[in-house]
DNA sequence: GTCTTAAATTGACCCGTATCAAACAACTTC
DNA sequence: GAAGTTGTTTGATACGGGTCAATTTAAGAC
């Protein structure tokens, strides 16, 4: 289901997104003008691997999972995009085809920006180009982190890392709520859901208490040295 | 060992690099002006994780391996850069610190471009910004490929993939020479050298013959379905 | 060419995690 | 609130690949 224009609340969310927050108002208006919005249920597919794709998607609310399919049908997540993230920037500067499948991991509202317009603006306005450069560098770093984690850490270590990345620095004990389902976290960390579950129970002996989506940390140091 | 200026042959190599080939001569001159060159032996370290780094390195010849260290001292390659590649673009647009260690994987000649200048040029010249955007998108895609491979494919499948990526399309049988040591290939594919060796011997039954650095493929179809 | 050192291979073993199956818990929907 | 659906946990098992050690092979040095 599509609506032609962004509502004012959609607009407000966009303005808060990291990508847009660095840009002058006029640039934002130029980018957003003509954008369309769509709503999606959990498990809806937004686009498929190898599909022609000349749009950038912005997650206004909800969550989008980007994954590739193996020959045998197995899925491997390559990224998970929360509210405010841009999806498909790579594609519009390369061959304008999706490199992976995208699906909503929960009920989501998605804005679509035209790739052609973004390319034009990037070529005309160095502020836009600059913002894109920073975005891509950030994504690059995240991808590097992810690859290194996969190759260096065991499942409990990856989970400990993830938990610590949510720790307000300085505090020794804290708790937070997972921003999505555990199965999504498992995918993001490159694990089967069962392995995530087992990792949590391994971490119990290091002071991690899991109650539903809420995670409580009693001893940060124990986690750090895991 | 450093030389202050690029030789004319260094310059020629730069002009052939994918990044520079899209740029007008004037832009290239502006970027390259003031660059320094250094030569390195195998295993020399170019920079270390978390070091301040406000340069972009260009591999003029040789090979550079980018890797992260685990707590236990294990190394995980995050990228391997052959001649013509740029290293450290992410860093100059983020916090100007290295996100990984870089070491020469064979005797190498490296050019250093100043990050500050590159940033300035990217902000002034949209052609430079454009070239950087395309470069980063390409790197992003490669990183995504790598992550997906790690998560979806077994060791023999990754090796088969690598071999096929060197197959001149259309040909049913062919052979080529590995552009670097097998241990480097192993790291690039996220494998221990032993695992690479075993993968090769598994692929022998699919018509892959390995003689030193030369790889011969007798039956492409068998490889593709592996 | 021979000597020396580094790289690659092979075997034995073990650890980590995927997979399958089943029990359980938590939401929906009516 | 009951019934069905979906998500999570637990156990048993199998497989892939890492690690260590011992050879074999290849590559540099003289």
From TrEMBL, chains A, B:
Lineage: Bacteria, Pseudomonadati, Pseudomonadota, Alphaproteobacteria, Hyphomicrobiales
Domain Cyclic nucleotide-binding: residue ranges: 19-139
Keywords, ordered alphabetically: DNA-binding, Transcription, Transcription regulation
Domain HTH crp-type: 153-221
Xref: PROSITE patterns: CNMP_BINDING_3 (PS50042), HTH_CRP_2 (PS51063)
Listed name of the protein: CAP/Crp family transcriptional regulator
GO CC terms, sorted: cytosol
GO molecular function, one term: DNA binding
Listed InterPro entries: cNMP-bd_dom, cNMP-bd_dom_sf, Env_Response_Regulators, HTH_CRP, RmlC-like_jellyroll, WH-like_DNA-bd_sf, WH_DNA-bd_sf
């Amino acid at each position: 289901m599509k609506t032609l224009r962004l509502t004012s609340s959609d607009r407000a969310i966009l303005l808060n997104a990291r990508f847009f927050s660095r840009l002058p108002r006029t640039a934002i208006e130029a980018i957003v003008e003509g954008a369309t919005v769509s709503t999606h249920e959990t498990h809806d597919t937004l686009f498929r691997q190898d599909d022609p794709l000349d749009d950038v998607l912005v997650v206004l609310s909800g969550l989008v999972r980007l994954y590739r399919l193996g020959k045998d049908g197995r899925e491997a997540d390559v990224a998970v995009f929360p509210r405010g993230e841009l999806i498909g920037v790579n594609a519009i500067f390369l061959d304008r085809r999706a490199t992976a499948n995208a699906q909503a991991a929960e009920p989501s509202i998605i804005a679509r920006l035209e790739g052609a317009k973004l390319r034009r603006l990037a070529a005309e306005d160095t502020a836009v180009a600059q913002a894109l450069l920073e975005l891509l560098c950030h994504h690059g770093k995240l991808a590097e982190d992810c690859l290194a984690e996969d190759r260096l850490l065991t499942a409990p270590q990856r989970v400990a890392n993830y938990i610590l990345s949510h720790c307000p620095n300085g505090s020794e004990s804290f708790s937070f709520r997972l921003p999505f389902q555990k199965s999504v976290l498992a995918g993001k960390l490159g694990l089967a859901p069962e392995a995530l579950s087992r990792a949590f129970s391994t971490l119990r002996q290091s002071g991690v208490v899991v109650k539903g989506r809420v995670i409580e940390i009693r001893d940060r140091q124990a986690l750090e040295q895991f």
